[in-house]
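Morning. Coffee machine broken again, so started the prediction first thing and wrote up yesterday's gels while waiting. Chain of 290 residues, entered below exactly as on the submission form.
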Amino acid sequence: MTSAGPAGTVLVGVDDTSHTWLAAEWAATEAELRGAPLRILHAVGPDTGAGADEPGAAETVERIAAAGTGVLDDARDRIAAAHPRLRVDTVLARDDPAEALLTAAEDTGLVVVGTRGRGGFAGLLLGSVSLKVAAHADRPVVVARGHTERAAEGHVVVGVRDERDEAAVRFALAEAGRRRTAVRLVHAWAPVVRAGVMVPQASRLDEEQRLHARLLNEAARPVAEYPQVHADTELVVGPAAAALVDASARAGLVVLPRHPPAGRFGLRLGSVVHAVLHHADCPVAVVPTE
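Came back before lunch.
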């Protein structure tokens, strides 16, 4: 096992649940598209050495480590069978899974996680590990959810909030270039309703629409750097989360920018990113903004 690798490495976290395979397979396909190696990480938790002086503690630690090694070996064998030319290494981490992934992400190009944790709250579609990694990683994180098989043929949707989102747009364009597909840049907006005015005047709506169109065009500037990728821009009137979840039903990948939290108590992922991560019908990439 190794713990270091080139910056282009694709890192995927696995466990012993059925959802792991979707993330591992998506990560393997992505690594092949990038011409990069794949690193498979499994964390057994930081407490496997606790109580070392107690009877049977050493045997317990060995069993946990052996089980973790078995998870990694199984994942590597399945990946090797489906992707025989892909370079694969494995890491068994003795740490909290989210912390292990965030640490290992420091020398990788992309992190891939699955959709469901072990929590008992049935309505929670994402596990705490996936949410924490998506919220804190300093590089793009893909949550492999929904129809992962559409990645090779579906177009790429990127949600644009403002002109700071060029990094997310570039990521989307690069992904579309690898897949030889198109990109949709989607910006959703809601008309500003002034106090005492239930329906904004048509002239004011036109002005707001022009402002939002200008914002979308500014964020779309990286399109010129990818002449081989067909890109369309789309203004949507309505909630951003709903527009992006709807767009995910026909996409192979949705790309979202992760802005710094608004204020001291703001959501680190933001309400739109959080909603799309839970309800999208395809994999979702979260790209941190500068």
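Confidence is low (pLDDT under 50) at residues 1-6, 117-125. Going to sketch it on the whiteboard this afternoon.
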